[in-house]
Amino acid sequence: MQNESKIDPKIIEEMLKFSKNVIEAPKLVSAPDEISLEVTSHDVVQEMDKTRLLHYEPLTDKQHKTPLLISYALINRFHILDIHPEKSWVRNLLQQGFDVYMLDWGTPTSMDKYLDFDDYVNGYLDTYVEHVKNESSTEKISLQGYCTGATIATAYTTLHPESVKNYIATAPVIDGWRDTTVISNLAKHMDVDKMVDVVGNMPPEFMYYCFSVLKPFEQGIEKYVNFFKNIENKKFVDSFLRVEKWLGDTPPIPGELFKQWIKDIYQDNLLIQNKMYVGGQLIDLKKIDMPMFTQVAVGDHLVSPECSMPLHYAVGSEDKTLRMYPTGHVGMIASSISQKKVLPELGKWLLERS
Amino acid sequence: MHLMSSKPQALNSIGPMRAFASNSKKVSTELIEINELLMGFNQYYSEYYKQLSDTWAVAQKKVNQKAPEVPQDVEQIDSFKRIWIDIFDNDFTELFDSQKFGENYGNLVSKELELTKHWNNITNVILQSVNLPSKEEIDEVYKEIHSLKKRVGKLELELKKREIKKNAK
Question: Is the overall model pTM greater than 0.80, yes or no?
């Protein structure tokens, strides 16, 4: 009896409140298909196979001369860069007067299993860069690559330096042997030939498994406990659901592209050694000689800083900047830190060179 | 009449069952191989769960050492939860980062893929028995389409370059 009297009644109160929140959640939370991730207005200005080029409507009377094309990652969808009006990467850049284009890689199907690095670098990205150049009547553009999109953009920039005025690499996947994340450990032990031979494209389910082993208890328990605790906070719930919807929507990766990516980046580490070939052409990082800005997140558990930073030292650019931010992989592009620190610094750097 | 009754297989010589019957040996072989593979798969599968459960036990011991008292109020529950999550996340990340986990997981996935390959082979036998293309045949078509698209793209680019050159003159 003595032991029972020690328990704080607040514990019972908290537990009852939590249970009530769980029960009431369906009434307070929107269904995933009721949430639109298209935040900022844009036009689809070109389509090629399943990929699309988006052009965002300007938010200022005048725009800086050099347009910016963003090459988003191959994992999940581009929406994270425009996930919420207050946390939108794209909107912030538009408000700073930049003319912003976005590459949506679309959703590959079984038919696309033979698409490789060459198709993505010299096919899709090159076509869209040419479109942006023509539409904005410029000879060179600013190019930003995020995560695996930066691996593609890096390969493109080495092969077509004449089209890139400024290159921004945000959490780029570059040096696979230095990568200290769980993802790289799984990638290094993967029989990728067998996987592509048997299943074709890399299935989204495999990616979901990889996500599930990243901070499993923080992400699998604490995150949802916080969600139910804050179920009455509309702003929190809206923001949470947007990110959850984005997390649950990752397209397959074309088999041949995935094979080369795992082998050349994680297993043989050819890119950083200037030994990787795309479409029969050598990727020599020294050919990146334009101004370059590398953004790295210290707490990145998807692409570790050790994997991204070597790009800064490997390129031929004299005008190059490396910035490290006290946040994570997604926090760097869609958080209050990105709005207050990362984007203003990027905007200032880009403005001086646009 | 005598010929028909003595050779019943001739009755369905062009039907799907004949094609299936002639390939049934292949299906049996695939099933035997699947059975053998399952032994290897189960070995890596057991090891996978053993690694998880061993890590769980060690992490729980660490939590017990660090937070021996049963939490009595809300603040204590919160700090206990924090300790529990931090220790479990650290220990499991260490496991997922280790070579032994990577190797076993790689082998587990590899065996699963081999099982899928055998399943595909059985499916191909069924597909062929109803005169539908096999996975390999569909893959060949995809490969051809991909190669043709690439060639057309290059030709279009070449044509565009020539037009620009011609207009410049």
Answer: yes
